[in-house]
Amino acid sequence: MKRAERQYALVDLLRGARRPWSAARLARELGVSTRTIERDIASLQVAGVPFYAEYGAAGGYAILPEYSLPPLNLSAAESLAVLAGLALLDTSPYQGAARRARAKVAAVMGEEHRAPVQELLGRMQVIDPVAPADGGVPLGMLSDAIAARRVVRLTYLGEASGDDVPASTVRDVETMGLLRGGDAWLLVGWCRLRDAIRGFRIERITRLELLDEVAPERDPALLEADQVRWPIRSLG
C-alpha cells in the first residue's frame, strides 16, 4: 500500500471508529510498524486533520467527530484533468503537495468515475527529458524557501562547454518564484553574486542551504522587466 493510500485508510478507520485505536492496533490493521503510524499521524496533523490522543488502558488515537472530508463534485473529465495536471508536478518543487492533493481527489471521486478515470490516466505518459540528479536537493526545500521568502545559499553547476568540466559557483539568492522553461524548472531570484535577477535550473543545484535571512523587498518592476523577454504566462 502506498503512503497516500495508507494515510487515507488511516483516516477512514478512525472516522468510523467508536473508540480510539492504539498505534499498535492501527499498525496491525495496515501492515506497518507503529513508528510508521506515528509518522503518518504527525504528517496528517500538519495537513490539518484533527487527530487527538487519549491516554490510559483504553486510550489511543481518534479524530474529532465533526471532521469529515469536504465534498468535491467533479465530473469524470474534470477529475481526469485535475489528476493529470497534478501528476505533471511530480518532478517539480511541489511534488509532495501534488501527491497529497492527488490522493485527496482520488479518495472523494465518485465510484462511477473511478474506473474510467484510472483507465485513461494509465494511457497517459510523460517523457521528462531532464531527470532529477541523484543526490540533488530535496525539491520540497525550494517551495518552502519561496513561501517563506528566505535567502538561500546554493551551489550551482555551470553549463558544460566542449570538453571543459563545468565549474560550480556558490551564490546567495533571494528567492522570488519558480519558472517552467521548456523541459526544466527554474528557481528565480535575485543573485547577489551577479547583482541581478537570475534563473537557476533545479537539476544543476547540487547543494542548497536555507539562511536565516528573509529576502528584502525588491521592486516588482525588476522581475517584470526581466521576464518581458519571454512569452511567460502566470498560473495565478
Task: Walk me through the structure.
The longest helix is centred in the middle third of the chain and has 14 residues, at 95-108. Helix 2 crosses helix 3 (34-46), helix 4 packs antiparallel against helix 5 and helix 4 crosses helix 6 (111-122). This protein has three domains: 3-63, Arc Repressor Mutant, subunit A (Orthogonal Bundle); 76-122, no CATH class; 139-227, SH3 type barrels (Roll), CATH 2.30.30. The protein is α+β, with helices and mostly antiparallel strands. The chain is globular. The chain contains eight helices and seven strands. The protein has a five-stranded antiparallel beta sheet, sandwiched between helices. 38% of the residues lie in helices and 23% in strands. A hairpin with a 2-residue loop joins strand 4 and strand 5 (184-191).
Q: How many discrete domains?
A: 3
**Low-confidence spans: pLDDT under 50, at least 5 residues?**
131-135
**Which CATH C-level class of the largest domain is it?**
Mainly Beta
Number of DSSP helical runs: 8
| Helix content class | 25-40%
For the biggest β-sheet, the strand order reads 6-5-4-3-7
CATH topology of the largest domain: SH3 type barrels
Question: For the report, how would you describe the main beta sheet?
Answer: 5 strands, antiparallel
Q: First CA to last CA: what distance?
A: 35 Å
* Percent of residues in beta strands: 15-25%
Shape: globular
Reported CATH architecture of the largest domain: Roll
Mean pLDDT: 82
Taken in chain order, the helices and strands follow as HHHEEHHHHEEEEEH
Return Rg in Å. 22 Å
The SS-based structural class is alpha+beta
Q: Could you tell me the number of beta strands? A: 7
